[in-house]
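User: I'll paste a sequence; please echo it back and then give the predicted structure.

Assistant: Echoing your sequence first, then the prediction.
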Amino acid sequence: MNVSLKFRNATFQDRDEIVEMLKEIDEKFCPPLSSREIGIVERVDRVLKKESSEYILCEVDGRMAGIVGYDIHEGWAYINLLAVRPQYSGRGIGRSLLKTAEKRLEERGVKRVKVCTWSTNEKAIMLYKSLGYYVEDILVGHRGEGIDTLIFVKAL
């Protein structure tokens, strides 16, 4: 099945759909986004309102299939979110979103990108390594008993 992917910057008009998607997949995160210090709505609002933050959406047939978000700092950026709806998993959307974000960040003068995930998220770990990210630091037990946070970095 050949599906056309559309990438675009999110606007505040996309807020409710982004929140809806993150609520749908909340339990896939470790810990779930809803149980973190900053909840889903606050997280989305923070990115949409800050000039140095952005979401890029991937749409399939007009429906949001995935999202990547980042915060830009002086010379580097942090990927604060990468998520794909389960029904679109395995189609390369996460990879395409991450590569799109890297390209836009590089165009804005960013030299280094960081992203983190939990140690049991094998798909994300494989994705980051395949795109040239390497583990810069490990926060042991940070996400719970036996679940570490892996901090990846990549030079652009």
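The longest strand covers residues 134-144. Residues 5-114 form a domain with the Aminopeptidase fold (CATH 3.40.630.30).
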